């Protein structure tokens, strides 16, 4: 017997059972929304912490550079020459690396989760599905099983480890460009044959000597079981190529301060500038060595010839690209189609300097993008810019560009050396093998000796000014390794062989900078190298007619009569040097300022033509001859338009006739006299009208 439900008057039935599903749905949606909000807050906190950590890491390097600069000032004030700023930056980097590696520990994050999945390869990007939401993770490197609890510490060290491309695309270009832009071409071209021999033949000899010696050590290491991975002959040659790049920045700084013999300085500086370019192209050619068949490390003549062809092609292409960009910068602006030589861009020094800077830097990136070598391109771009573009700049822009690239070179170089010290402790995959390290030091020493001594003997057979044995010993001792060697070794550390190369390269750089660089002063004293040499006075005393080879003397004449007037406001107008049939074209290509500056040369270092190619009157607009009584004879001259005018025998007769002669080139004066102390002469600045 059932009872019907009782209804209380004034009371409605409850609808809670009907609202329950909607309440549960709203609760779930709200909880998911709260979870999303919490995830967003956590992500923002992580991003903020990462930003603060990145700022702190950059602050570390800024403080390192600041401390280095202050210590450099103290060393210069106390005249302490046993440690260069680069070695000092490395010491400070080592100290910071020790503190970061052993003194600071980051607490383990509770949110870290270790999961296992069966993947045959290591993908660069990983998508993880977490409750229907996809998250992207990027590969940072392998973590050792024994260091599983040190992931946070390794992450902190990884933060202060830069991408190798930062060195190649940001730090190396200003260093290499400054080397070419500040090159003293007068001394460089006087010794150009010897410099090219040391840079090209010497680097190749050093590469193969080091490679063969290291292959012997590696073979011995395999026999005794001291090799933990593959190490082929091509790897040994690659190691020989990267450690053949010299960077005697410490020695050159001391040479410049003490005014060491200009030829020794030119030989050492010219070799270091060019052999960096040769080393990077040589290393790329070795990597490109790919013989046919399954064994990619066997010897094959065709593959060797192909690598040699790649070397020539990459180097010549990079050279042509750098020179073309430099010539283009002398003529056109990157942002406008107007010809720079004929525009008023020089009225805006800031824009002019910015354009010069961007065009110079873009040379490096353009060469890399085209498959060439940016180091070679930007080096010869700097030489071309200094020879041509510099003359078109306003006086303000000339000072600004010099100071700008000098500053960038100083900061980038010291940054790299301080980073070297820090990397010794922050790099996660060091492989230090005692046998390999000993073999590397022996190979580097013998490779440098095989470069300097045999080539010097051969060069002395044809040189008027011989390279003395004391100069050879100093060049042997001054073969330091530096920024380029480090950058080439850190660019690829994926394999066991490359990791061992990088670790050994660091030790080689430390040793050469600290020991060889610090021993420069005692070495100069022991070898009786003359110091305090006035380069201008030394050049004035030399009979330099036969010091430059005839191809370069022909090049100087062609450059002065045609290229200088075409690309700059210097030299004679093209109307005076081109044939009469080319008169309309010559008038079109000659700027009005060239007529005003006819016969004058505005390049501060361009008197290398006079000093190194026969002391020609090609740039002189006035010649003042003084006899013993002090009377002066003014002979206005005109540049010769012929190919051999500056170097003919009539010039020698004219120079021999004058007891004291002063050739005035704008504001640059050269006094070729036998003994300045015996015949004091007062020189007055005259201007041609």
UniProtKB/TrEMBL annotation:
A single cellular component GO annotation: plasma membrane
InterPro entries xrefs: Cation/H_exchanger_CPA1, Cation/H_exchanger_TM, NaH_exchanger, NHE-6/7/9
Protein family membership: Belongs to the monovalent cation:proton antiporter 1 (CPA1) transporter (TC 2.A.36) family.
Record-linked NCBIfam families: b_cpa1
Signal peptide location: 1-33
Keyword GTP-binding: no
A Pfam family annotated for this UniProt entry: Na_H_Exchanger
Membrane-spanning intervals of the chain: 57-75, 87-104, 166-183, 195-218, 310-335, 355-383, 404-425, 431-450, 496-517
Lineage: Eukaryota, Metazoa, Chordata, Craniata, Vertebrata
Stretches the record annotates as Disordered: 626-651
Keyword Transmembrane helix: yes
GO molecular function list: potassium:proton antiporter activity; sodium:proton antiporter activity
GO BP of this protein: regulation of intracellular pH; sodium ion import across plasma membrane
Species this chain originates from: Salarias fasciatus
UniProt protein name: Sodium/hydrogen exchanger
């Amino acid at each position: 017997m059932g009872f019907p439900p009782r209804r209380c008057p004034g009371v409605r039935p409850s609808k809670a059972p009907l609202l329950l599903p909607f309440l549960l749905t709203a609760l779930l949606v709200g909880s998911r929304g709260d979870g999303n909000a919490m995830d967003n807050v956590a992500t923002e906190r992580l991003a903020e912490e990462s930003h603060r950590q990145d700022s702190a890491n950059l602050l570390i390097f800024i403080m390192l550079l600041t401390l280095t600069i202050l210590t450099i000032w103290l060393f210069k004030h106390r005249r302490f020459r046993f440690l260069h700023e680069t070695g000092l930056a490395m010491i400070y980097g080592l100290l910071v690396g020790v503190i970061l590696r052993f003194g600071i520990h980051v607490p383990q994050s509770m949110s870290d989760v270790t999961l296992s999945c069966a993947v045959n390869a290591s993908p660069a990007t990983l998508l993880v599905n977490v409750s229907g939401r996809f998250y992207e993770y990027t590969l940072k490197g392998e973590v050792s099983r024994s260091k599983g609890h040190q992931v946070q510490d390794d992450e902190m060290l990884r933060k202060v480890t830069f991408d190798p491309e930062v060195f190649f695309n940001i730090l190396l270009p200003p260093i290499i460009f400054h080397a070419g832009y500040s090159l003293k071409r007068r001394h460089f071209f006087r010794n150009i044959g010897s410099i090219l021999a040391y840079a090209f033949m010497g680097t190749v000899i050093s590469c193969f000597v080091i490679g063969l010696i290291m292959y012997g050590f590696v073979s011995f290491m395999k026999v005794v079981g001291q090799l933990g991975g593959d190490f082929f002959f091509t790897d040994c040659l690659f190691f020989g190529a990267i450690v053949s790049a010299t960077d005697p920045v410490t020695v050159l700084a001391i040479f410049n301060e003490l005014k060491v013999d200009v030829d020794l300085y030119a030989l050492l500086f010219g070799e270091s500038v060019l052999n960096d370019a040769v080393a990077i192209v040589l290393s790329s050619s070795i990597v490109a060595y790919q013989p046919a068949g399954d064994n990619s490390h066997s010897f094959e003549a065709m593959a060797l010839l192909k690598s040699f062809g790649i070397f020539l092609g990459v180097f010549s292409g990079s050279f042509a690209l750098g020179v073309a960009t430099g010539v283009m910068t002398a003529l056109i602006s990157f942002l406008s189609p107007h010809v720079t030589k004929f525009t008023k861009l020089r009225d805006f020094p800031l824009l002019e300097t910015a354009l010069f800077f961007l065009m110079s830097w873009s040379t490096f990136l353009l060469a890399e993008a085209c498959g060439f070598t940016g180091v070679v391109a930007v080096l010869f771009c700097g030489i071309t810019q200094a020879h041509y573009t510099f003359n078109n700049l306003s006086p303000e822009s000339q000072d600004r560009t010099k100071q700008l690239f000098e500053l960038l070179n100083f900061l980038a170089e010291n940054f790299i050396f301080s980073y070297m010290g820090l990397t010794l402790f922050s790099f996660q995959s060091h492989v230090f093998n005692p046998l390999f390290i000993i073999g590397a030091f022996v190979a580097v020493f013998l490779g440098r000796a095989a470069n300097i001594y045999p080539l010097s003997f051969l060069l002395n057979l044809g040189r008027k000014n011989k390279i003395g044995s004391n100069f050879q010993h100093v060049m042997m001792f001054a073969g330091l390794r530096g920024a380029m060697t480090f950058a080439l070794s850190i660019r690829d550390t994926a394999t066991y062989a490359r990791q061992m190369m990088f670790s050994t390269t660091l030790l080689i750089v430390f040793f050469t900078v600290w020991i060889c660089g610090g021993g420069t002063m005692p070495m100069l004293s022991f070898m009786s190298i003359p110091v305090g040499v006035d380069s201008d006075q030394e050049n004035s005393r030399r009979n330099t007619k036969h010091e430059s080879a005839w191809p370069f003397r022909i090049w100087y004449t062609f450059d002065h009569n045609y290229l200088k007037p075409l690309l700059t406001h210097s030299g004679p107008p093209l109307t005076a040097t081109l044939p009469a049939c080319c008169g309309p074209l010559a008038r079109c290509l000659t700027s009005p300022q060239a007529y005003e500056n006819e016969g004058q040369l505005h390049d501060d270092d361009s008197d290398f033509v006079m000093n190194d190619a026969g002391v020609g009157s090609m740039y002189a607009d006035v010649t003042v001859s003084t006899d013993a009584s002090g009377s002066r004879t003014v002979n206005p001259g005109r540049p010769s338009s012929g190919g051999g005018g500056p170097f003919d025998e009539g010039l020698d007769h004219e120079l021999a006739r004058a007891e004291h002669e002063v050739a005035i080139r704008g504001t640059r004066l050269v006094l070729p006299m036998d003994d300045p102390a015996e015949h004091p002469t007062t020189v007055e600045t005259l201007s041609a009208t």
